[in-house]
Amino acid sequence: MPNTYLDRAIEAVPKFGERISLFTKKLRLAQYADGSIYDYRLKISQAVLYLNKLPDDFTQADIDSYLSMLLDRNRYSISHFKHTVFGLKDYYKVMGLKEPKGLVLPKSVKPRDFQECSLKIRSLVLFICVTSMTRLCFLPSMTVLSG
User: Fold this and answer.
1) CA distances from 79 to 29, 32, 46, 83, 120 (A)
2) Do 91 and 118 fall within a single domain?
3) Tens-binned pLDDT, residue by residue, of the chain (147 aa)
4) What angle do CA 4, 10, 11 make, to 5 degrees?
5) Please, are residues 21 and 27 in contact by the beta-carbon 8 Å criterion?
6) Using CA atoms, how far apart are residues 30 and 28, in angstroms rounded to an integer?
7) Are residues 69 and 83 in the same domain?
8) How many contiguous H segments (helices) and E segments (strands) does the chain have?
9) Rg of the chain's alpha carbons, rounded to an integer?
10) Are 9 and 16 in contact (CB under 8 A)?
11) How many CB atoms lie within 10 A of CB 85?
12) Where are the alpha helices (DSSP H) in 16-111?
């Protein structure tokens, strides 16, 4: 019984097994990092499983639909989305296929929550820096007074 995305994608689209093996060999020959190979295989397998067809057969509408789904669901991180795009781009490049035009990162892929969170983190870091600097400025003078 298949338990990984790759296994399930191969079960759903049997020809995918041969294609992903060839893709993996080509990435290894191109000296891609093992982590990148693993991640690209995972993201491509998830797309194959969702669309139920080989990446070779993805249409522009398929890619638009899949990428929109990734952006619309809050459970997927920005890095998940980016690795999906880069994995598919490299799949088409390495396999010698024409890349569909829809494989682009949107100008702003950060949801509003990430931007607000980032602002809060920057404010907190600034507060910590100012507090630390204040302590460092007054610490020597307090040492002199107590000594």
Assistant:
1) 25, 18, 15, 6, 21
2) no
3) 568 999 999 999 999 999 999 999 999 999 999 999 999 999 999 999 999 999 999 998 899 889 888 888 767 788 888 889 999 999 999 999 998 876 776 554 444 544 554 555 555 555 554 555 545 445 454 444 444
4) 90
5) no
6) 5
7) yes
8) 6, 0
9) 23
10) yes
11) 19
12) 16-29, 34-51, 60-72, 78-94
- Which two three-digit tokens encode residue 58? 């993805």
Residue 12 corresponds to which amino acid?
A: A
Cα 89 from Cα 100, distance rounded (Å): 9
pLDDT for position 143: 47
Find, among 62, 58, 48, 56, the residue nearest to 11 by Cα: 48
Domain coverage including residue 143: 110-147
Q: Which single residue is written with the structure tokens 């307090």?
A: 142
65 and 43 within one domain: yes
Residue 109 contacts residue 81 (beta carbons within 8 Å): yes
For residue 20, which amino acid is it?
Answer: I
Tokens encoding 8 = 């399930």
> At which residue do the structure tokens 């049997």 appear?
14
